[in-house]
Amino acid sequence: MTSSQPINLQQAASADTAKVPSWKQNSDEPFLRIENITKKFGEFTAVDNISLDIYKNELFCLLGGSGSGKSTLLRMLAGFEAPTSGRILIDGIDMAGIQPWKRPVNMMFQSYALFPHLSVADNVAFGLKREGVGRSETKQRVEKMLDMVQLGHLGKRKPHQLSGGQRQRVALARALIKRPKLLLLDEPLGALDKKLREETQFELINIQEELGVTFVVVTHDQEEAMTLSTRIGVMNHGVIVQTDEPHDVYEYPNSRFVAEFIGSVNLFEGEVIEDEPDTVRIKSEEAGATLYINHGISCAPNQIVHVALRPEKIKISHEKPEQDENCIHGVIEEIAYMGSLSVFKVRLASGKEVRVTQPNFNRHMGERFTWDDKVFLSWDVDSSVVLTS
Amino acid sequence: MSTTSRLPWINESSSLMTKYNFMRRINWGRFSVVGVPMLWLGIFFFVPFLVVFKISLAETAIAVPPYTSLFEMDWEEAYINIKLNLGNYLYLFEDAFYLDAYLSSIKIAAVSTFFTLLVAFPIAYMIARADGPKRGLLLALVILPFWTSFLLRVYAWMGFLKKNGIVNEFLLSMGIIDQPLTLLQTDFAVYIGIVYTYLPFMVLPLYSALEKLDMTLLEAAEDLGCRPFQSFFLITLPLAIPGVVAGCLLVFIPAVGEFVIPALLGGSDTLMIGRVLWDEFFLNRDWPMASAVAIVMLVVLVLPIMLIRNGQGKEEAI
Questions:
Q1: Residue A156 within a domain
Q2: How many A-B residue pairs are in contact by the CB < 8 A criterion?
């Protein structure tokens, strides 16, 4: 569990080449076009009428829980499953009826699926040999690829003699050696421990930028999705609920599902009592106050909505803050000190529990809070989001 | 570690280490577990083997048992006369009949093993790919023939293969042949008998090797440009090799010494070492010769198998 917003490596990496990304320009042709794809297994609909455009050099993450259909979608891109209906176009070519071994796509499997009877070098060379690439060229390309994933010295080993992180690199090298137009990665960092995972994230992004391959990553780990991707598609029950850049998915979730799935969030149920272009007032019994949001929504009057508020957007204080709007009070019930930040659970008069995180700016924790303190919680008018669904 | 550590748990652990080493040196539990089967093998395999070996060095005699003693002891003259007769072994190599019998046995066993593998592989593959309950049923069906007597099943094949047997009747009625084929008492019938009888011994080890095969490996192979038949030869088959070796040994070894199947299904010209052994023992009552045949057969079989095993062990160590 983490409540800190992960830094986005993509944005950090490409900050110097600030330009309008392809998915915001309507002119660019999508590299991968998914059109109304549906996949049914008997009565069960795994993927339900998904349409999605992914552009060249993107690192697109399909994020969802187990059974959300993300892996099925990936397997359809690789050609292991045929869609029940709909079309997949890669670089403008319809993939219908094209077998996995003929697609310009390679996949890195969650279990890595390294061939246990072949050495690391032979595993990596496998794809080239099937293509009929000459012996000397194969050798050269394998060496180069192994050097790139920093395994140049381990070519003769068998997969079972490698550590988890090394196997992951072999799998990546094997999937990249045929220079696919599209690389599919199924939970690429899932089997690595936290430290290794962070290092590998950077490497993945560097490799992706260096080779200019389009990546589609499937993951259930929201932090992984946030740090890696240019865009995230959040999936639930076979449907993509929201497609946006990581920042927007986090700050502007479009539904309660997305808000709760990514990071942690406080949700206040309330009734819209005023809805104008630049302000909304929501009367919330749960919060015990009227909540103000400085952006308009379009909804019926008196509609029941939810106000989503991230824990780190809330200020906590003993004294009543000067602002009147968006200020509620409660009692500290639990405190968790997590080093870089502290998490408070504050019980409101309505019985609602609010989660608040505060960065620990200085060593002596500034204003000290302890159990059973009466505290005020306040936030800015632009900190929260109104969710109608 | 000569200096005493200030940290108590370090001393603690080192004393634990010595205790552990001590326990390892006399591991009675392990000894008893390994000891029981070793004792069993010693009494019921190694001792009888020595007895057979001893008999093979004797000469035939009209006596009970029908061979001479190796040791002659004369207490008055105070000597022990040990008489080892290597004639049986020499005769084995002199008479081409025995060499032919060995070669023919090995040929018949090898051919049958090959065909057993061909038949068993698809069966094992299918069972390994079947899902839960179906898999159990198919496995049970493979083992089911063991529930009836082996002899009965071989006799049943006689019924199938004889001149007016089911196979001939069927082919005649279909108009495929005009004359009944001679199927029984041929090498062909022996092959059929061995393949049929030993099929489960091939299917089971193949199944256990194929069952462990991770299906995503085949997907990975396809993803990297393999057509299904290529991925079979590049992935499935190499990973099934341990099962293939185990199955082939389980079929080949007993097939070389097979007696019942060639006796019942084979013709008079089907030469197999099991039959030679039987004849030496019961018709000629030449126990020493029969023993020599048995010992040589063991050497012929054991040596290559030990070489194979050794090679496998080395490969795993790399």
A1: no
A2: 53
